[in-house]
Each structure stands twice: as C-alpha cells, then as structure tokens.
Design goal:
With about 260 residues, the chain is an alpha/beta fold. The protein has one domain: Rossmann fold (3-Layer(aba) Sandwich). The chain is built from seven helices and seven strands, in the order βαβαβαβαβαβααβ.
Length: about 260
C-alpha cells in the first residue's frame, strides 16, 4: 500500500470528492483526519469508512485560523504526526457579477483560497519540524478546478478562488521545495457529486456537459481520489508545482463534440 503508515488531513472530507479521497487514502494504508464544517455529515462519514479506528473527524471552519490550528493539534494528538494534506474544502455562490454581494465574495474566497493558505501553512510548519527531527518530507494536494482557467459568468468568487488556488500551489511548491515538501493540485472537470446529481435526470443539461467532454461521460469522485492518492505517494516523487486536470479532455477542447444517445 503506497501510503502505509502515513497520516493525512482531508478538508471538506465529509462527502462528495472529499469522502472519496478519504476512502482511497484509507485503502492505501493511511490514517486520516476528516475536517469539515458539517458535523453531522462528518460523523456520518465515519460510519461509512472501514478503518479500524484509523479515521477521525474534527469539525473545522478552514477560513478560521484558530480552527485550523486546533485541527492540526488534534491530528497530532490522535496520530502522532502529519505526512499529507488534501485541501479539498470548497463552496460556491451563484450571482450575477453586477449583483454579487461583498460578503458572499469574501465567504467563498475565505474557504476556497484563504482556507487553502491557512491549512497549508499550519501543516507545512509541522512537516518542517518533523523533517528537522529526521523524518521524511510530506506532501500537499490542493483542490483546484478547470475553472481556474475557464470562467462561469455567475460563479465569480468560485472561478477567482480556483485561479488563486492554482497559483498558490505554485508558490507553495517553490517555497517548500528546499524542505523536500511537494505541493500539487488536482483540477477536476464535471464530476458526479451532489452538485451535478440533478443532471442525470435532465437530458438537456447533461448533453451540455457531455458536448464539452471528449471522453463522453461525467467523471466519478473516485477518479479524483485516485489522482490525489498518486500525487501524495512516492510514485509522484519528482512532481511538484503542477495542476493535474482530471477533466475528460475538456481543457484542451476548442469546439463541441457529438453526444452519444
């Protein structure tokens, strides 16, 4: 198992892509701390992951520095160290550009971008302390999106925040390279989470997505989890500062493709 003996924090790990990542990391041998602001979903997630007590949950608002520091402290108390971080927590807010409220912009940026910064700083500081004691460097994966490049007119803060996450990934990677800590990002395309579940019953909406997806299908959370586990593992030992787009071929596409009936 590629992550045997390692401890990982997964923010936004109570459902969707985050929960799929938790399951994959556990299957690869990791101990995992789930961090999520939805306490009910976090406790429910624990019931769905077979881990022999090697998965814990901590209610966390990643936009709050004190919450992040408590998360790191609780993870160390539970498992002794932190070797991996997945900054997956993210939210959206739909609004026309002219109608967008400042508070909603700040709220999305606070979770998606500031939260990635705060968690990355706190965990990286601990990793550096571990390295100074002779332990192996850890690895960080940030969750970006194809919307770090594309834009959606009514998703202003989300698109801006994901652009920031991809750039922050590069800055983190360069800053932490001297310690041997690798930092990469995953940029999902259209993935079948709760956000897209309604698409399955809406042929018109589904066709819009598939017409811009060369592989002709919507991705699964488990596929994002697989890329994340790879980037955290030793198999990606010479990869840092990169955003890997798991998008079914959408990013290179400059036209639409036929949709199979």
């Amino acid at each position: 198992m590629r992550l045997d003996g390692r401890t990982a924090i997964v923010t936004g790990g109570a459902k969707g892509i985050g929960l799929a990542i938790v399951r994959r990391l556990v299957s690869e041998g990791a101990k995992v701390m789930i961090a999520d602001n939805d306490e009910a979903a976090g406790n429910a997630a624990l019931e769905t992951v077979s881990s022999d007590g090697e998965v814990r949950f901590t209610a966390t608002d990643v936009s709050e520095r004190l919450d992040v520091h408590n998360l790191v402290a609780k993870t160390i108390d539970a498992f002794g160290s932190i070797n991996a971080l997945v900054n997956n927590a993210g939210i959206v807010h739909a609004a026309d550009f002219l109608e967008l409220e400042e508070a909603d912009f700040d709220r999305v940026m606070g979770v998606n971008l500031k939260g990635t910064l705060l968690c990355g700083q706190a965990v990286a500081r601990h990793m550096v302390e571990q390295i100074e004691k002779g332990e192996e460097p850890g690895s960080i994966v940030n969750m970006s999106s194809v919307n770090d490049t594309f834009a959606i007119a009514n998703q202003v803060p989300y698109s801006v925040s994901k652009g920031g996450v991809s750039q922050l990934t590069k800055v983190m990677a360069l800053s932490l390279a001297t310690h041997g800590i690798r930092v990469n990002a995953v940029g999902p395309g259209s993935i079948m989470t709760d956000l897209l579940s309604a698409v399955a019953d809406n042929p018109e909406a589904k066709n819009r997505i598939l017409s811009r997806t060369p592989l002709g299908r919507i991705g699964e959370p488990s596929e994002i989890a697989a890329v994340t586990a790879f980037l955290l593992s030793g198999d990606a030992s010479y990869i840092t500062g990169q955003t890997i787009y798991a998008d079914g071929g959408r990013l290179p596409l400059n036209y639409t493709v036929p949709v199979k009936e």
